[in-house]
């Protein structure tokens, strides 16, 4: 069996000499835009992970435990309450950082 070429050669396809419209240019730019730089792509994809890691490291420091015990006396020596307070602090800080980053973008 021989394989037959069923497609049309590009030279035989119809074309016109008109300039593309702005809508056609926008479609072409959307479809064939250049890929972003690797470093900026990696940073934008891993920004959330880096923020979470940094916040976790900071909130795991012993000085944070002493600050929480000083400013929230009801925590006392309860590790569960301390974790709840740290979780609340983590959520608030992450929310503001993430929203500031998105607004800047």
Helix coverage percent of residues?
55-70%
Q: Mean of the pLDDT scores?
A: 82
What shape does the CA trace take? rod-shaped
What's the total helix number?
A: 4
Q: What is the CA–CA distance across the termini?
A: 58 Å
Radius of gyration: 28 Å
What's the β-strand tally? 0
- What is the helix/strand order? HHHH
Largest sheet: none
Please report which band the strand proportion falls in: under 5%, 5-15%, 15-25%, 25-35%, 35-45% or over 45%.
Answer: under 5%
Structural class given helices, strands, pairing? mainly alpha
Low-pLDDT parts are none
Please describe what this structure looks like.
- The chain has 105 residues and is mainly alpha-helical.
- 65% of the residues lie in helices and 0% in strands.
- It has helices at residues 22-31, 38-59, 62-71, 79-104.
- Helix 2 packs antiparallel against helix 4 (79-104).
- It is rod-shaped, with a radius of gyration of 28 Å.
Annotation keywords:
0% strand, mainly alpha, 105 residues, rod-shaped
Summarize, please.
With 105 residues, this protein is an all-alpha fold. It has helices at 22-31, 38-59, 62-71, 79-104. Helix 2 packs antiparallel against helix 4 (79-104).
